[in-house]
Amino acid sequence: MGGGGEEVAAEDRAIEISLKDLSRKLEEFAKARDWEKYHSPRNLLLAMLMAEQTFNGLAGTRTDVGEVGELSEIFQWRGEVDRGLPNWEASDKEHLGEELSDVLLYLIRLADICGIDLADAASKKIVKNAIKYPPN
């Protein structure tokens, strides 16, 4: 490549991080902003599903969607998409990653506030699903 720069492989850029690490980072983030008082289970769930109603003097009242709604909007008019999203622009994939991250971070924070070990609960659920839906 020109300019003497080195290309960094995607796997070299990846950072290994656990759900517990993310949980600690989210707790620190909320504490630093004095947001813990707002992080009740109900509020976190509603933030994932819907946002508050806002008033726009010209257009009237509207309801903004929450994080899951923002994620859904990305796929709303695309129909079925191929695995790996081969026909998507890099900027669309980046936007998708941001919205997936928003949902994941809210889910981790909700589990933490509720005292649920999300990794343990997910592992147990996979086992239950394997029993409930055995291979053919």
3D structure, described in words:
By secondary structure, the protein is mostly helical. Helices cover 55% and strands 10% of the residues. It is built from six helices and two strands, in the order αααββααα. It has helices at residues 10-13, 19-32, 41-49, 67-75, 90-113, 118-132; strands spanning 50-56, 60-65. A two-stranded antiparallel ribbon has the order 1-2. Helix 2 packs across helix 5 (90-113), helix 3 (41-49) runs antiparallel to helix 5 (90-113) and helix 4 runs antiparallel to helix 5. The termini are far apart.
- How many strands in all? 2
The end-to-end distance, rounded to whole angstroms, is 50 Å
Largest sheet: 2 strands, antiparallel
Instruction: Please give the share of residues in helix.
Output: 55-70%
Shape call? globular
Q: Count of helices?
A: 6
- Assembly type of the chains comes to single chain
C-alpha Rg, in Å?
19 Å
The SSE string, one letter per element, is: HHHEEHHH
Low-pLDDT stretches: 1-8
> If you average the pLDDT, what whole number results?
85
In terms of DSSP E residues, the strand content is 5-15%
